[in-house]
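Aim 2 progress update. The chain analyzed this quarter is reproduced below.
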Amino acid sequence: MENGVYYGDGYSGDGGYMEQEEEWEREGLLDPAWEKQQKKTFTAWCNSHLRKAGTAIENIEDDFRNGLKLMLLLEVISGETLPKPDRGKMRFHKIANVNKALDFIASKGVKLVSIGAEEIVDGNLKMTLGMIWTIILRFAIQDISVEEMTAKEGLLLWCQRKTAPYKNVNVQNFHLSFKDGLAFCALIHRHRPDLIDYSKLSKDNPLENLNTAFDVAEKYLDIPRMLDPDDLINTPKPDERAIMTYVSCYYHAFQGAQQVGFNHYPPYNFIHQPNRQAETAANRICKVLKVNQENERLMEEYERLASDLLEWIRRTMPWLNSRQTDNSLAGVQKKLEEYRTYRRKHKPPRVEQKAKLETNFNTLQTKLRLSNRPAYMPTEGKTVSDISNAWKGLEKAEKAFEEWLLAETMRLERLEHLAQKFKHKADTHEDWTRGKEEMLQSQDFRQCRLNELKALKKKHEAFESDLAAHQDRVEQIAAIAQELNTLEYHDCMSVNSRCQRICDQWDRLGALTQRRRQALDEAERILEKIDILHLEFAKRAAPFNNWLDGTREDLVDMFIVHTMEEIQGLIQAHDQFKATLGEADKEYNLIVGLVREVEAIVKQHQIPGGLENPYTTLTASDLTRKWSDVRGLVPQRDQTLANELRKQQNNEMLRRQFAEKANAVGPWIERQMDAVTAIGMGLQGSLEDQLHRLREYEQAVYAYKPHIEELEKIHQAVQESMIFENRYTHYTMETLRVGWEQLLTSINRNVNEVENQILTRDSKGITQEQLNEFRSSFNHFDKNRSCRLAPDELKSCLVSLGYSIGKDRQGEMDFQRIMAVVDPNSTGYVTFDAFLDFMTRESTDTDTAEQVIDSFRILASDKPYILPDELRRELPPDQAEYCIQRMPAFKGPGAAPGALDYMSFSTALYGESDL
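Predicted structure tokens:
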């Protein structure tokens, strides 16, 4: 399909050729170079036939438009007569003639898809080329047949065979294979060696080769120049339709082609009949020899495969007949694995080889019978029956070998199971005894405490029970060893040796067990003597140590106090603690005395590790060190508490100083803020009076600033002393700073708002009474006195002033438009200035774009444009130049030179356009 158009689908009687052609159709005319080549080639091809009727075409898309020469072309190449053409020159006459031609093509079995007479009459080049290509396929290429191949494949095979002997020629397709011209020259030389000296041609001279072939074909073979050498060389991939068309002319010239198409190609007189006869004879001989060569190849392959298979069977039989083994299960299993590998890996290729051998033999006999050759008799000993007998012998040996392997495996598995049982029990016993002798000979109890020694005795009692239980296993091991000896196990020597080692070790373990029990009993009696002393020490040392640790932590504990009451409470608690130190000293001496007694007993009985107390990790030296620390920390704590008492006394003084000053400054700021807020709400006189009073408050505030600075100095001292609360005042420095800043901000904001209100009043011409009304309404709905209204408050305020805002959807849309005016930044609230500006615009007459346009129209004498001179004459110089620089040129009809568009300029002034 090319741009939504199918060219002729062609005649599909060649069994798939036309389906393949569809791919050519899709790509054929995408490249302009291909279109150019097709146009030239198809024109020459048409003229090679039209000249027989004494005419020709010059432009392929124009000369077929009336259908007359198209019908004439079909009559020449088919030898048949078409219906009489219409001779009129009207469009319907031309369409009728082209339809007659297309109907004739369709009558020859060619299916035309999407090729209509209208496109041909209109000179559609792509459609015209598609139609001519359909004609060439049907009448010049369709009936080409070489060895059961037709059309393109047959023509390609013919070219390959004819050019096969030629150097540098390899015909694989109808585009790149013909680019250098050697393929054309080889086709001519193969049939007319007298016309071209092929040995003098070079692959490096494609232009010379192409011109030589085209000149010789035109001069001696009556084949017109249908291709341009430059186009072929310079096009990366030449158009194969053009080349196929040209090559088909060579085929018909050299093959005679009496039956191609509709017997319209006469035999060429210059082709010598003897050459054709010789070629026919050569083809027949080649065919016979080819059959013989193929039969001989099959015979040789049969002989080779038969020899190889029989030799493999001969080498394999001794291995399958062997019955030798080392009497071990591992050895038999290895043989069994080898046999499985043989069946899985080595034999399958031989099965395939045998099947191939039989198949090749049958194929060979069939080929010989069909070609009238005598039947094939293999070499002696290599007949099919010889191979079959050898194969049966192989399979019989395999079966016997496999049965022997399985029987031997079962016998040795039984013996191996007994050996494994001996090994398992021996391994289990040896694992259990591993380290037992070293454990029984150990003197580990010499370093044990009493509780550890008792645990060792319990552990030893458990071992004695375990030892008695293992007696049965030792007897089983000896019995299995005796049975293996009776059955003549192949490794009886190692079994007997291992059994003897186990029995000897068993005797040693019994003696060592009795000796260790006696040693443990003796050590237990000695350790119990000192255990009571260790326990008493632990009971007294632990609580005393805890008291020491807690006391040390309390004496060095960091404390944070903020009041006199807190520090006085700490001093009183410390005095109570000092009164208990006498009792603590008595307890210390008693505990240390217990340790000295233990040391004496351990030294008397020479007990290793006897000084270690199993009930506690505390030692007498630990307690002595801690008691010394406590007695040294007491006077240090006295000094620390005295220093903190002095600090808190100073902090109390700073609190009173800050509170006294803050309690005066805070109310003053609040009074000023209330007064300024009252003025800002417009409740006191005219705007000028409000502005005057705000200025007076501003001067008073700045005059009061030294009080704030003095308070800041006191606050700095409070912070440096780390004072965080003050019960003498509810004011903090932060709240006073914020109040001070809010006071200044409120004054400045109110001054600005009053000035803006004065400006709005004067510029809009509203009266003081109107202003008071707006202010009164605003203040009424400003419930929290924040000097701003929320959207709901604003809506209520507007309703109170007479606005009609409905509760329906339209009313909400009207209110949202008002909010967009008074709150353009979407802050969520409306200031009095924005409210006042809106109300003044609603209640006063304002300039509009239409009013300005009307004014400019008057200056322009009712023209839709205005001239620069008119602006300079009617306006002040700076305003006139301002307008001239910004007004766009007038683009309407009938404008004078330099005309300016005052309408769009006016709308831009009010934001109603994008200028």
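The CA atoms of residues 257 and 865 lie 87 Å apart. The chain has 32 helices and four strands. These observations will guide the mutagenesis experiments scheduled for the next reporting period.
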